[in-house]
Amino acid sequence: MTQAETAPRLWIRDPLAILAEGAGGGIVVQGSRIVERVPAGARPAIPVDETFEAGRHVVIPGLVNTHHHFFQTLTRAHPLAINKPLFPWLKALYTVWHRLTPEAFRLASRLAYTELLLSGCTTAGDHHYLFPKGLEASVDIQVEEAREVGIRAHVTRGSMSLSERDGGLPPDSLVQDDDTILSDSERVLGMFHDTRPGAMVQIGLAPCSPFNVTKRLMRESAALAERHDCRLHTHLGETLDEDAYCLAAFGQRPVDYLEEVGWMNPRTWLAHGIHFNDDEVARLGRAGVGVCHCPTSNMTLASGRCRTCELEAAGSPIGLGVDGSASNDNSNLIEGVRHALMLNRLTYGAEAVTHLDALRWATEGSARCLGRSDIGRIAEGREADLALFTLDELRFSGAHDPLAALVLCGAYRADRVMVAGRWRVLDGHPLGIETGRLREDHTRLALDLFGGA
């Protein structure tokens, strides 16, 4: 028998509510996987070794974050950048981001992983594209920190290769040449990318956006992704300024650019995807290109509204992301679920988008964006990634539908979180992480490196 088959079985029993069919009596977890859904009023069909009474808890699949920039936790609410749209916001923060150090980046990653975990997120995606001198091992740091925190990670090796002198936005100090980027991309894929079901770490390739990378880098990244069976990620269609840039620089709109460089395929998922016309929505859907909806960031920067319903109807997987913590300004994915519901109801109408749609985007939809069928749902054979919330706070008093209450009443912090069958958050506290010390160290470095700029 395998180690998984001899592992103890845990019955998470009789939850207050659970986002799964036929599981009113809870679920049984063995090893890293869910092995049984228990109907309401029934007992498990297989013997169990332990029982957790979940009568106070609303159980949902662990949330899956598909877009973030961990380093930006160090420049939240920065006076140079607040109250600006995307391009001026970027140009302002480029003037300070070159000061990022390995120590600061490690703390930023640890803090972002911890924040996400506490919000019920069990798979944390990050898009790291900033490689000033001395920070060449950024991906290695993020993998180490994910393993330390115990969260599942999808780290994308981002990049910028067009600086201001080449017609791009970032300064010279923040870009690398294409050959350096491609070489390191191959290195981190060889070291860390795990394509097996249940993988705790996967790597994607993520040239930052059309306005700061070369077409060569986009094409060769696509070829590298094909060889290593990994995902492709980039910002696209976030602002009207991006449309104007692509028309001026390439003579084409962003989706045409994406097709020209060989990215119109199911390996690709895009961040934001706001400014697509009807034809582009249909083309993206036919190609199976995923879109990460970032409602909080889109509202903060006033970038626009993602056409979630049209994209999903066309065939594009829709996921959710918190985006960078300088354009959100936090890393709370369950809060992002609520924002997704509110913004999309404002766009499509009160009956068109439900709390279950928003939760589905943050779980199964996000998993599809990452190309994973082993997470995102509570079902036999899936990974035991779970977020358990209580409704004990005043904000939930009087709530009648527990699952709807999570979203409508504004759940903010999970009481328990399980990743791959192991508890990582208990009673609202992350195991093995001293959050007070983490906050002190992170704040000190944020002020030392970026304060007074």
From TrEMBL:
Residues 58-423 form the Amidohydrolase-related domain. Its EC number is 3.5.4.32. Pfam families: Amidohydro_1 (PF01979). It comes from the Bacteria. InterPro entries: Amidohydro-rel, Metal-dep_hydrolase_composite, Metal_Hydrolase, MTA/SAH_deaminase. CDD domains: ATZ_TRZ_like. Keywords: Hydrolase, Metal-binding, Zinc. One of its GO terms (molecular function) is deaminase activity. Belongs to the metallo-dependent hydrolases superfamily. ATZ/TRZ family. NCBIfam families: PRK08203.1 (NF006055). This is 8-oxoguanine deaminase.
